[in-house]
Amino acid sequence: xxxxxxxxxxxxxxxxxxxxxxxFEKGKTNLIIGQSGSGKTVFMKCLVGLVEPDNGxxxxxxxxxxxxxxxxxxxxxxxMGMLFQGSALFDSLxxxxxxxxxxxxxxxxxxxxxxxxxxxxxxxxxxxxxxxHLYPAEIxxxxxxxxxxxxxxxxxxxxxxxxxPNSGLDPQTAIVIDNLISEITKEFNMTxxxxxxxxxxxxxxxxxxxxxxxxxxxxxxxxxxxxxTGNKEVEEFVYxxxxxxxxxxx
Amino acid sequence: MILFVKLLKESAVFAWGSVVSNKxxxxxxxxxxxxxxxxIISVFSVVDALERQIRNSIASLGDNVIYVQKWPWEFSAxxxxxxxxxxxxxxxxxxxxxxxxxxxxxxAVFGASTSRTVEYLNRSIERVPIFAVSHDxxxxxxxxxxxxxxxxxxxxxxxxxxxxxxxxxxxxxFEGTDPVGRTIKFFGRNVEVIGVFAPEGEDMFGSNHDxxxxxxxxxxxxxxxxxGDRYGPMIMAQGRPNFSNDEVMDELRGVMRSIRRISxxxxxxxxxxxxxxxTTQFDSLFAILKIAGWIIGGFSILVGGFGIxxxxxxxxxxxxxxxxxxxxxxAKNYFILLQFLAEAxxxxxMGGAIGLLLVFGGTWIASQxxxxxxxxxxxxxxxxxxxxxxxxxxxxxxxAYSAAMLNPVDAIRANT
Lengths: 250, 416
Known about the structure:
Chain A is of the alpha/beta class.
């Protein structure tokens, strides 16, 4: 569980996050949505400790992350998996080596065989078969994203952060990836936080959706509730596409 | 570990990619290192070659031979030449006295030289150095005789008109025919050739035997006063192996002073010269040349170092994303630092390697064109490599440190 309390952040005196309070539950896929400039990225960065909030706290279970020393934060960070926009695999490493990378960096106790076994387990879980020794340039965009997910879960994280996981993917593959993240979240009982623009993702896997508007937490609820909020700003965002408007009008 | 090596490889690949995609920028950047390494290693190689040649020349003179002469080899700025003018020249009888009075000297040879036109049939060579020596010359100087033989004791003692000639003299005078047993003419006398020296090649002091005619001292002294100033008379004395050069010098000085009856308060009226003095003088010259090489090359390397630092800052900027991702996935600061240092060292080594290749090319051309004995020694190659590595480390440290200290925040939203 991750809990943000009264998170406030301003740049050059201009507030970009205003007293945000919310809780991301364990075993759930939590989505942060909102227009560009709404503060989603800063919120996510505050959660993972990459940006220091001016006020407020972030709790990982009962630990106040924002008050921890750098060393202590490192220990919490070892429990985080990260899925970057565009996969961000290392081109010079094979698929298997990419997955092993966080194990090499964080885990000093595992043997080489244990690391290989763990990598194989993660790759199997995301349905990457017989591609261990291929390089990122030799696999498709969807496969890259799966490998990135395998890498993100390699350290058996308790918290998974995904930044625009569907960017650059076709709609079908995007749904597969969304569902994979959702399945993994439940299977490993992780707290997953996803930063996205994609309404398909919201509808597909949004157990808990947080809508930010001009730095404020404007609305939160489930994916089924978001269609009927009655909130003007949320509806403008949700029904921004012609497709969604047609679905609404039947 | 394997991952680390792979990521170092990635750094090298990235550096290479940067080189290939920005050829002009890279060439201009690496030019400083290339010129610097070229300058330093060239100077060192030339100095080494000169040093080797001089040492070989000195060794051929006999590095443990002391020359008793009128004039010293060392001249300082305040050299009072007029005090040496009236000194007596060494005499053959003094050489015999030296051998008689001391057990420290193993061999002593008297020598005198001049130059004459040497003739054979209708061919002649002008100004051929003629060197007249007492019999034990072959014990003091290192040489080989290709054809024929050295003087016999009887020929030396009797002052027979025989000669051992240099290979160049033989080639020019006899043009392929065997000179041994033939008669050449100089001093207006017929002289029988009994041997030909093996070719020795160029010598820094012009003391090789290639262009020389060697004759017994007794022959020359039968019609010339070999103690005359114009013949540069000298006694070459070689100490016994169990005595140091300084001991031999001291003994020789005492013996010479006693032979010449010099009072204790009076100065020597002879000079004791030894080849090690020449070596010392050249050592300081070589040291200055090497310093000059460092200064010239150092400035280029300094400029090259700045170039590499600049290119590394660009590299860090271009790879901010990958740095951030690595850090976000747990890479420690030293891991990032080492990657970028490796890249800087790779670039610097590349510049240094080009510089070394230029030196190899230059020495080959110089060897072919000027018949110079130029060799690049392994120690100089290692020096070039080490300097390149050090420059890479120094120039790359600040950019690598700045990369290592980057906040992974920059990667989170990067478009990778």
